[in-house]
What does this fold into?
Amino acid sequence: MTVSRALKPGSLVNEQTRARILSAAEELGYVLDSTASSLRSQKTDFVAVTIPSINNANFADTVGALNEGLKARGLQILLGYTNYDMQEEERLIEQLLRRKPQAIVVTGGKHTPRTRRMLENATVPVIETWDLPDTPINHVIGFSNAQAVQAMVDHVVSKGLTRIAFIGGDTDRDTRGLDRRRGFVAAMERHGLDATRLVAAGPPPISMREGADAMDHLLDTDPDTEAVICVSDLSAFGALSACQRRGTRVPEEISIAGFGNYEVGSICVPSITTIDPSPRKIGQQAAELLCEILDQGALFPVRREIIPQLVIRESTR
Amino acid sequence: MTVSRALKPGSLVNEQTRARILSAAEELGYVLDSTASSLRSQKTDFVAVTIPSINNANFADTVGALNEGLKARGLQILLGYTNYDMQEEERLIEQLLRRKPQAIVVTGGKHTPRTRRMLENATVPVIETWDLPDTPINHVIGFSNAQAVQAMVDHVVSKGLTRIAFIGGDTDRDTRGLDRRRGFVAAMERHGLDATRLVAAGPPPISMREGADAMDHLLDTDPDTEAVICVSDLSAFGALSACQRRGTRVPEEISIAGFGNYEVGSICVPSITTIDPSPRKIGQQAAELLCEILDQGALFPVRREIIPQLVIRESTR
DNA sequence: ATGAAAGCGCTAACAA
DNA sequence: TTGTTAGCGCTTTCAT
It folds into this structure.
């Protein structure tokens, strides 16, 4: 017990004793076994986090901010990737729950029924992010992807453009991408405009290459298109590059908008009009909420809406 | 014991009994406690992985490939970020070791003395990646950053360019970035060229914004520069964008090269000449090596050199 | 195919 | 300030 105390900062041990213990530990190369510690104290200090892909700057920002907010409390993130696949998410969450995390943060508000049940039965706080589901499992910190794109459509329409296309993925794997497309269609119909210029650019998540190919295709089949709204800045940048290769001037001949406020869109020439969903803010708020809950016990389910900001740049006129 | 067996696929339990157990488990919302399981069996099925930053597509690719290679064996990655800081790495590795991972994969071959000691004393395989240290701790899968950049200098010089600059970070936080700058200087001196056009663009990791600012500065102070080699494709893209804003033609007036083969460099116009260090290959090979070791027990220390490929594109003439 | 006993390495609770 | 006891929830081992 004295050793156990000596190794835990802030517990009452004679300083000489502690010094002797620490030096012995150093000499022996002793490393505390937190597996045993977790079992006994029923505290793992894990927070399970799932994101669709590790290779996405937006989700990386959320996880980075979450990590910073949790580090001070000694909480370690246990990260998993669903590969935009709800079945994979189910497998992953089952695995993660076995590790007895003290909280769970998932991306998105759509899950398999079994995933939902597992999360509902989990005795720890659950936070859904990057979405605003109608019937949350527990806590939510997110925004409406559909509504955000509607704001973008409104902006483009306000500039007098009417022949507007949407570039996105071709399946429903990426539910947030799907919501964005739905928002596009809804807004176009609200304006009484043709909402059928939908380019399906391949299996989500689509990136720069797919955006470039989609733009090439669009300019071939619908050369009178005046504006393109893309499911992300990455595909928007690809679309912009395709225009540059063809000599189509942006925004003079065609406007391009993206989503996500990725760095590339702020640097490229012309810079890309986008929507900033504040990924770091999502992570920060999730960390704050978890710290509150872990301090004060469970609260009522929290629903925090992030308001995505329209960022108008050079690629739209 | 029967319950324990029933929940573990491939063990001998009467199928009726197993069915009853599984349905009871489902009904109760029972979740196996892998903390207890790990303590008893002394197998956590964790692999600890450290990378400098979560928000970097190269490291993300390595981790993604590693994850895929380990998933089949039920190994879960325990990921930590050092923020390009060796002190932070030390804290992180100490934390991770307490979780009793079955292997450790770190980025880079330079560590604090204490980190080195901890890793040497760890009784599990250690793999250093993304580097080729002279005195590895245990296993290594990586490449020489300095040598890779030398190849790039050779290429640029072979095109008849002599006034060549390097854009990188301004401190030694990013040791791979530092190695790249060293490689630049060594190669320039080998060619008998002036190696003093070194632009320090801010604290590493530098990204697109810093690359753009550095290029602006360079074109102001050394307008006769013929080529710029950047520490990464991200800063190279920033540099390219700065040129486009100023109307400096690339590659006619100035050549630009990067490092890392990020997607942006393959899509932008002009596309960016780069070096591809095959980040996924590093992750795949690390996974293979770990699987071998976990099957067959410890081997001699392995040293696998990845040969980075020069990818010549439009931004250099 | 199932069960009984023991113990993995810690720490909560209580005692001195 | 230090020590004793017990037990966290599993799985290894051996027995039936």
